[in-house]
Amino acid sequence: MIDSCNSSDDGSDSSRDYEAEFKYIEKRFPNAEFCVSIDVSKLKEYLTDEKEIIIKQQFSCGCYLRYDDMFLDNNTHLRPPNNYFIIKNDNMTIENILDELIKQKMTTDCDHHFLEGFEKETDIQWGLCFGS
Ligand SMILES: [Zn+2]
């Protein structure tokens, strides 16, 4: 787990026990190289009935320049090509998908390492939604 995972909560929302959720997530996914920022209550929900799906990781945030951007300097990175993860599981729950992404070493290189959810793109493909 990367160090900055615990930094986003300013404590202003008292309706949920974010600290307890964070601790649970930390224990549940000790080897994650990204921050799981998904409601604990949603982890056991099924994303789909499919047994094999594709998860797409797109580097679309402002941390990366598009290949056609003109102003490159040492602080910017060219946008890498998309990553695709093939997920095979009889029970395509959110937590099983996360386990599989962790096993396949899914990681993020920029400030947007809070995985907030999945966005359906086709019947068998979902994109990853990251926040900072
Ligand atoms: Zn970013």
Features:
single chain, five-stranded mixed beta sheet, two-stranded parallel ribbon, 16% helix, 24% strand, binds zinc ion
Low-confidence stretches: none
Share of β-strand residues: 15-25%
Largest sheet properties: 5 strands, mixed
Which word captures the global form? Answer: globular
Bound molecules: zinc ion
How many domains, in number, for the residues?
Answer: 1
State Rg.
16 Å
What is the rounded distance between the termini? 15 Å
Class computed from helices, strands and strand pairing? alpha/beta
The string of secondary-structure elements, in order, is HEEEEEHEE
Number of strands: 7
Mean pLDDT, rounded to whole units? Answer: 86
Percent helix among the residues?
10-25%
The main sheet orders its strands as 1-6-7-2-5
Number of helices: 2
Description:
The strands form 2 sheets. The protein has a 5-stranded mixed beta sheet with strand order 1-6-7-2-5, with helices on one face. Strands 3-4 form a two-stranded parallel sheet. The chain starts with 17 loop residues before the first helix and ends with a strand. It has 132 residues and is α/β, with parallel strands linked by helices. It has one domain (13-131). It has helices at 18-28, 94-103, and strands at 35-36, 52-57, 64-65, 77-78, 83-88, 114-120, 125-131. The structure holds zinc ion. Zinc ion binds at residues 61, 63, 110-112.
